[in-house]
Specification:
0% strand, 175 residues, Arc Repressor Mutant, subunit A
Length: 175
């Protein structure tokens, strides 16, 4: 049982009670004992460790989501989080849903489903948004693809600059 307790201690920072993790790890130990084959020449602890860790990880995977979300959507959500970061830097603004869909190689509807499924995760996460300066929670779906005002102003100035050069001083002041 000390093996189970030491392995469970590694995962106790995830918000579960250590005793609960020890119980879950014990299930993994029991399964390992049932399947252990002494004739293979492997120690029980060597064989049991991955089984115990696997049972604990399975617990977090299955119970970490408030609503059961298909694994494919969970993985797409993680992929989209990384893509949002990269595209934001590359584009200088938040990417739109069509841009994310193209970058991920999936349909827009799948992107929307995956982003919405991320909200079903029960633990706090950066992908669920955060508080703004005025204390309100920000929804990442509301800010995704949003045109940033300062970017729009800069773009307008860049487009209009050649036209301003041909105007005389009076016309420029009027505009």
């Amino acid at each position: 049982m000390s093996l189970v307790r030491s392995l469970a201690r590694r995962y106790s920072y995830r918000g579960e009670q250590l005793d609960d993790l020890v119980q879950i790890g014990s299930i993994g130990l029991i399964k390992a004992i049932d399947r252990f084959d002494l004739s293979r020449g492997v120690e029980l602890t060597t064989y049991a460790t991955p089984n115990i860790i696997g049972e604990i990880k399975r617990h977090f995977r299955d119970r970490g989501w408030a609503v059961r979300v298909p694994r494919g959507l969970q993985e797409l959500n993680v992929q989209l989080s990384k893509l949002v970061e990269g595209l934001t830097v590359q584009l200088g603004r938040s990417p739109t849903i069509p841009e994310l869909a193209k970058a991920a190689g999936v349909e827009e509807e799948e992107v929307l489903e995956a982003l919405e499924s991320g909200r079903a995760y029960s633990s706090l996460s950066l992908s669920q948004g955060g508080g703004s300066d005025d204390g309100e929670d920000l929804d990442p779906l509301e800010s995704l693809g949003e045109v940033e005002h300062q970017y729009e102003v800069s773009e307008d100035r860049a487009v209009l600059a050649p036209g301003f050069k041909v105007l005389d001083e009076r016309e420029r002041r009027i505009l």
